[in-house]
Structure formats: structure tokens, C-alpha cells
Design brief:
Phasin_subfam-2, Phasin, mainly alpha
Length: 125
Amino acid sequence: MSDNQFEVPEQLRTYAEQSVTQARKAIEDFMKVAQTTVSSVEGSTQQMQAGATDMNKKMLSYAEENISAAFDFAEKMARAKDMEEIMKLQSDFMTARMSAFGEQTREIGDSAAKAASDVGKAANS
């Protein structure tokens, strides 16, 4: 490798890892409160409530998944030793998140369609 290669100082990597750990803890605490709130929300009808609850749980699950992936990525970036590693991590992260986003979007669409169908069936009964 070249002598002119940019290296991230160890002290900066340590500081970045600590910052990511603290931020992860804060988000985990927030997500616990959000889960409690979502669990306590009541709908006015059983069908709407079931659809809304399912959608809320999916969205919360996706948020947790995406936040976890972002923190994992941040931790890896904090430990990166050179630009080549940083670029590979960025590329891998973007590829994985775009794939996950596509799957999440499809699942949300399917759930919304099912909830609308269930409410329609209940209204016609």
C-alpha cells in the first residue's frame, strides 16, 4: 500500500465507537418507550385496531432493524483504518439497506392492502 494512505487515528476511532455506543443506548431506550406506547394504543373497531396494530408493529420492527443496521455500520466505520475499507463498508451498507428497504416497502403495501380489505369485508357484513 502507498505511504500516503490516509489512516484514521486510534483516538478518533475510540471516540467514535464510544459515541455510537451512547447513541445506540439512547435509541434503544426510546424504542422501548415507543413499543410500550404502540402496545397501549386502542382502536375504535376490532378490524381497524388489528390492521393498525399490525402496521404499527411492522413499522416499529422496521425502524428497529434500520436503526440497528445504521449503528452496526457506524461502529464498523469508526473502526475503519483506511479509505479503501471505508468505501467498501459504505458500498456494502447501501446495497444491504436498499434491498431491505424494497422488502419493507413491499410488506407494508401488502399489510395495508390486507387491512383495507378486512375493514371493507367487515363493513359489508
